[in-house]
Amino acid sequence: MKLFLDTANLDDIAALAPTGFVDGVTTNPSLIAKSGRDMTATIAEICAMVDGPVSAEVTATDAETMLAEGRKLAAIADNVCVKVPLTPAGLSTCKALADNGTMVNVTLCFSPAQAMLAAKAGARFISPFIGRLDDLGRDGMGLIEDIVTIYANYDFPTEVLVASVRGVQHVVDAALVGADVATVPPAVIHAMYKHPMTDAGLEAFLKDWKDTGQSIL
Ligand code: E4P
Predict the structure, then answer these.
(1) Could you say which of 18, 41, 182, 215 would form a disulfide bridge with 162 (CB–CB 3.0 to 4.6 Å)?
(2) What is the pLDDT of residue 102?
(3) Ligand 1 shell residues, CB under 6 Å
């Protein structure tokens, strides 16, 4: 499963990009607002730091303006993936951009029926929001399972990109049900490193090593 970073914070991306496990980045208008920076400059900088797809979201709601925005965003760098909402205007924009070879991420997906429409519109990625569903007492991961099954039944090439991830278990469960990608906030990536037995084991190794009085270098 690919791991994308769900952030527009350049410091967080710069810190994690050298690890080799950052396969892409997703942003949205709220994340750009939180960064306090200019969107075009921010997307350009992220695209230079990460080789994989970098999602940049349109903000128009009508198809004509959305398509113009999508084309402008796509021109920022070769690895921009234009993000459109799961609305009739978003899906027609998805089709027009995809037909011209632009990667499109269809966002704000909350049902299997919506995911079917996005695949038929040529989306490269579908972004189901599992955390927001869980917040409502619904089964976010169940939605991922349903979409993975439907796409496999019909060989849809659209990749299932698990979004609105809230914790480590979401990432593990996404991999277990066969999602293609999880987009993960930096704090959750840092939590993925942690295990108390790793810390305790390392502490014991280092204590025993110190007692030997040796040095590798
Ligand atoms: C990413 O593509 C989504 O916009 C993001 O994961 C939404 O996360 P949130 O529900 O925590 O805002």
Answers:
(1) 182
(2) 98
(3) 6, 26, 28, 107, 127, 129, 131-132, 163-164, 183
Q: What is the pLDDT of residue 89?
A: 98
SS3 content of the chain, % helix, strand, coil (to 5): 55, 20, 30
Helix (H, G, I), strand (E, B) or coil at 83: strand
**Could you tell me which CATH number the domain at 2-191 has?**
3.20.20.70
Model confidence band, residue 176 (pLDDT cutoffs 50, 70, 90): very high
pLDDT of 177 = 98
| CB distance 123 to 98 below 8 Å | yes
Among protein residues, the one whose CA lies closest to atom 5 of ligand 1:
164
Report which protein residue has its CA nearest ligand 1's atom 12. Answer: 164
Distance, CA 182 to ligand 1 centroid (Å)? 11
Is 83 marked active-site? Answer: yes
Domain boundaries of the chain, sorted by first residue: 2-191
- Under a CB-based contact definition with an 8 Å cutoff, are residues 8 and 35 in contact? yes
Which three-class secondary structure string do you get for 96-132? HHHHCCCCEEEEEECCHHHHHHHHHCCCCEEEEEHHH
Query: Which residues, including other chains, have CB under 8 Å from residue 115's CB and lie 6 or more apart?
Result: 109, 126, 128, 146, 147, 150, 151, 158, 160
